[in-house]
Amino acid sequence: MFENLSERLGGVFDRLTKQGALSEDDVKTALREVRVALLEADVSLPVARDFTKAVQKKATGAAVTKSVTPGQQVVKIVHDELVQVLAGDDPNPGALKIDTIPAPILMVGLQGSGKTTTTAKLAKRLTEKNGKRVLMASLDTNRPAAMEQLAILGNQIGVDTLPIVKGESAVQIAKRAKQQATLAGYDVYLLDTAGRLSIDEELMTQVEQVRDVANPRETLLVVDGLTGQDAVHTAENFDQRIGISGVVLTRMDGDGRGGAALSMRAVTGKPIKFVGLGEKVDALEEFHPSRVAGRILGMGDIVSLVEKAQETLEAEQAERMMKRFQKGQFNMNDLKNQLEQMMKMGGMEGVMGMMPGMGKYKKQVDAAGLDDKVLKRQIALIQSMTKKERANPQLLQASRKKRIAAGAGMEVSELNKLLKMHRQMADMMKKMGKMGKKGMLKNLGG
Ligand code: GDP
């Protein structure tokens, strides 16, 4: 589904990874090409721009990793950024909230987007993969053919549909579906709402009313992936009016340019949960951002190579640091490393949990108030110190303190707190150093 984009990016990175050394200009040129490729794939301009900016920034600041080329490292950064743009902070966007019994799922979208087909595909999936008892109901009172279509699909996949009662309104059908699902013990019921050719007031009002009756656990917007940025606009509109919990992109089997998939999350903040990959009732796939990123980039080998090299580098760094601690060395650079490490590992608690025998120091750390915001401020303070000061914090007398605090836009009192924490931690590190190879080193370095 991303053939063209994949080919274009492949060309850019093939050239890049073959070069031994990269200048900043090389990276810039490559990223310009990446941006053009994204725009040609119909990714929205702000998303494409933010994307290349983020990559540029990370590529400039990246630690040099042994045994991989800079080009390979850039590929990994692009890969990670693709995952980020596709997934946000949610590694598993395809998971559905179907924790109530029965759990209502509202299917919304424009006519022709593939809504009815997708409703059946999803019902089949929930039945077969999740072992749920599923009921489907069509609310398309304007188009009897659409109701028939859902009934036929239901028959085909062996999923029950709510019997059609002529003359009922969409809200009445929704109420009946809820009642039936509750009484007959269905786990999930899917409401296939009416579509229009374009968004109109009547459609939105009707969907709102149905939403208020059903109180859905998931409201899934079905949009045609071939329509590119229009799909993203449709999602924005539906989200503003109805509030959607996720998106299903259909026709991703076609030769669309894939831009909708890449812009959707960044523009609407809503995850793509599934993609439709054909007309058949099993042509529905859960959306896996990392797999999709892999498919777009087509450079899985390089990505895992860089990952391994990074792991090795981190292990080496940890070992080097432990050696310093054992000698009782713990300066501001060490503290900065530690603080950065903590941010990566989800705060101090995550770190403490990994170290045996650390429980007794927990109070000290809590007293220092180490949450993420504080960590960022502390790092900023250290960054405002000179090299000499970092290596040798004893140098910090009043005038230096003033300069450092001002440089970081903070009060001297905050710097004093940091210095106190540094002393406490240096003390702690010394004690841990005495515990020696028996405890810490094995646990961290191994
Ligand atoms: P609705 O009006 O939104 O309910 O749309 P339908 O479910 O009736 O689908 C419209 C057409 O799109 C039908 O011919 C479907 O078979 C087709 N369709 C739906 N999903 C996909 C998909 O993921 N890929 C392809 N190629 N066709 C699809």
From TrEMBL:
<feature type="binding site">
    <location>
        <begin position="192"/>
        <end position="196"/>
    </location>
    <ligand>
        <name>GTP</name>
    </ligand>
</feature>
<keyword id="KW-0342">GTP-binding</keyword>
<feature type="domain" description="SRP54-type proteins GTP-binding">
    <location>
        <begin position="271"/>
        <end position="284"/>
    </location>
</feature>
<keyword id="KW-0694">RNA-binding</keyword>
<keyword id="KW-0733">Signal recognition particle</keyword>
<dbReference type="InterPro" id="IPR042101">
    <property type="entry name" value="SRP54_N_sf"/>
</dbReference>
<dbReference type="Pfam" id="PF02978">
    <property type="entry name" value="SRP_SPB"/>
</dbReference>
<dbReference type="Pfam" id="PF02881">
    <property type="entry name" value="SRP54_N"/>
</dbReference>
<keyword id="KW-0963">Cytoplasm</keyword>
<comment type="subunit">
    <text>Part of the signal recognition particle protein translocation system, which is composed of SRP and FtsY. SRP is a ribonucleoprotein composed of Ffh and a 4.5S RNA molecule.</text>
</comment>
<dbReference type="Pfam" id="PF00448">
    <property type="entry name" value="SRP54"/>
</dbReference>
<dbReference type="InterPro" id="IPR004125">
    <property type="entry name" value="Signal_recog_particle_SRP54_M"/>
</dbReference>
<dbReference type="InterPro" id="IPR000897">
    <property type="entry name" value="SRP54_GTPase_dom"/>
</dbReference>
<comment type="similarity">
    <text>Belongs to the GTP-binding SRP family. SRP54 subfamily.</text>
</comment>
<dbReference type="InterPro" id="IPR003593">
    <property type="entry name" value="AAA+_ATPase"/>
</dbReference>
<keyword id="KW-0378">Hydrolase</keyword>
<protein>
    <recommendedName>
        <fullName>Signal recognition particle protein</fullName>
        <ecNumber>3.6.5.4</ecNumber>
    </recommendedName>
</protein>
<dbReference type="InterPro" id="IPR013822">
    <property type="entry name" value="Signal_recog_particl_SRP54_hlx"/>
</dbReference>
<keyword id="KW-0687">Ribonucleoprotein</keyword>
<dbReference type="InterPro" id="IPR022941">
    <property type="entry name" value="SRP54"/>
</dbReference>
<dbReference type="InterPro" id="IPR004780">
    <property type="entry name" value="SRP"/>
</dbReference>
<comment type="function">
    <text>Involved in targeting and insertion of nascent membrane proteins into the cytoplasmic membrane. Binds to the hydrophobic signal sequence of the ribosome-nascent chain (RNC) as it emerges from the ribosomes. The SRP-RNC complex is then targeted to the cytoplasmic membrane where it interacts with the SRP receptor FtsY. Interaction with FtsY leads to the transfer of the RNC complex to the Sec translocase for insertion into the membrane, the hydrolysis of GTP by both Ffh and FtsY, and the dissociation of the SRP-FtsY complex into the individual components.</text>
</comment>
<feature type="binding site">
    <location>
        <begin position="250"/>
        <end position="253"/>
    </location>
    <ligand>
        <name>GTP</name>
    </ligand>
</feature>
<dbReference type="InterPro" id="IPR027417">
    <property type="entry name" value="P-loop_NTPase"/>
</dbReference>
<keyword id="KW-0547">Nucleotide-binding</keyword>
<dbReference type="InterPro" id="IPR036891">
    <property type="entry name" value="Signal_recog_part_SRP54_M_sf"/>
</dbReference>
<feature type="binding site">
    <location>
        <begin position="109"/>
        <end position="116"/>
    </location>
    <ligand>
        <name>GTP</name>
    </ligand>
</feature>
